[in-house]
Write a structure and sequence with these properties.
Elements lengths: L1 H9 L2 H18 L7 H33 L1 H5 L1 H26 L9 H73 L4 H28 L9 H16 L2 E8 L6 H22 L3 E8 L4 E8 L6 H4 L8 H9 L3 E7 L5 E8 L2
Parallel strand pairs: 1-2
Antiparallel strand pairs: 2-3, 3-5, 4-5
Helix pairs in contact: 1-3, 2-3, 3-5, 5-6, 6-7, 7-9, 8-9
């Protein structure tokens, strides 16, 4: 609660000053002909407006926050918000005005303070309703985006389950049948045995591809784990399942990464490891992720496989998922660089500079 109150006290100071000065200058020019010393009165109004604007916006938000924390009905009642906004603004204006009347007696006319206070209260309500309307629109947009994300996630999980329950299981059963058939005809037909062996290899390749697709559709939930722990678990999975030795080095404060950045980095690591399994024919790889004190994130994933000519595959669909990685990085202002040559392996390098 203390941190939230501190944020309220520091929030939108410039906007508060502009609103307050606008109110005071309206008041100043409404009674312009009655001011004797116009320069001093003008300066007094600027000071008055600055204090008034800060008090109205800050105290109003502070009161709304405290009431929302304590009273559940207030949180949901727009009418109560309007009533509190009106009387609070009018009260702040009245007390501030009379305080300045004491300090600047003779320079500012306060004959109609009560009626102007009512006007300030009405204007504050209108400003509040404007902000409230914008907030509701933004809330609706956020809710719509969250619903779309949830729908996509549900669909991905459904597809992953169907792939696992039907296609993957059928492939496993087919592989067992091929093994049995191979044992039956091994002594009687070499040509048939060769065909079966080739079929077995094709099934195994499809199974590998299927497992990667299922895992990409339904990864570990990052929210339930620390980020570095989730990466280490991902690496262990690939090491165990695909017999790859992956050297991992993770350093820095993972806490500076927001959820979106964590997901993008996690997906790029996943994509890179999947590509190593599918294309590189490597049994050794390195993964380095460093988050330095200047909020710079550097990710390197290197394999010691067959490599490729980058120019030859740049426009192909199956190009180490480069386009997918680039699209992911656009949303977090990251840069991707690929260093590869035939028979010399591949290095994926990502640089993200946080503001």
């Amino acid at each position: 609660m203390k941190s939230r109150i501190k944020d309220i006290l520091k929030k939108d100071i410039k906007l508060s000053l502009i609103i307050g000065i606008s109110i005071s200058l309206t008041y100043y020019y409404a009674f312009y002909q009655f001011h004797q010393d116009k320069l001093k009165t003008f300066v007094a109004y600027l000071i008055f407006g600055s204090i008034l604007g800060y008090l109205i916006s800050t105290v109003s938000e502070l009161v709304h926050y405290l009431l929302s924390e304590k009273f559940h009905k207030y949180q949901k009642s727009l009418l109560l918000h309007i009533i509190v906004e009106f009387f609070l603004s009018a009260f702040i204006f009245t007390t501030t005005s009379y305080s300045f009347q004491v300090i600047f007696s003779g320079y500012i006319a306060f004959d109609y303070v009560f009626f102007i206070s009512i006007g300030v209260g009405i204007m504050s309500v209108l400003v509040f309703l404007g902000y409230y309307s914008r907030e509701q629109q933004e809330k609706a947009l956020r809710l719509e985006k969250e619903n779309k994300k949830l729908a996509v996630m549900k669909e991905r999980n459904r597809i992953a389950r169907e792939l696992h329950d039907s296609v993957s299981q059928n492939l496993f059963g087919l592989n067992l049948q091929l093994n049995t058939l191979k044992e039956i005809v091994e002594d009687d037909g070499k040509e048939v045995t060769d065909i079966i062996e080739e079929s077995k290899k094709m099934v195994e390749e499809v199974q590998t591809e299927m497992r990667l697709m299922i895992y990409e559709l339904r990864p570990d939930n990052l929210q339930n784990k620390e980020f570095f722990v989730a990466i280490e678990d991902l690496v262990k999975l690939y090491e165990k399942r695909y017999k790859i030795d992956i050297s991992t080095y993770l350093k820095g404060d993972e806490g500076i990464l927001n959820d979106k950045e964590q997901l993008v980095i996690y997906r790029i690591i996943q994509e890179s490891l999947s590509n190593i399994v599918k294309h590189a024919e490597a049994d050794k790889a390195e993964l380095n992720l460093i988050i330095d004190k200047d909020n710079k994130i550097e990710l390197k994933i290197k394999d010691y496989g067959q490599g490729f000519k980058l120019k030859e595959v740049k426009n192909k669909e199956d190009s180490y998922g480069l386009e997918t990685m680039k699209e992911r990085l656009k949303g977090i202002s990251g840069n991707l660089n690929i260093d590869t040559e035939p028979d010399k392996g591949t290095e994926v390098k990502v640089i993200i500079a946080k503001n």
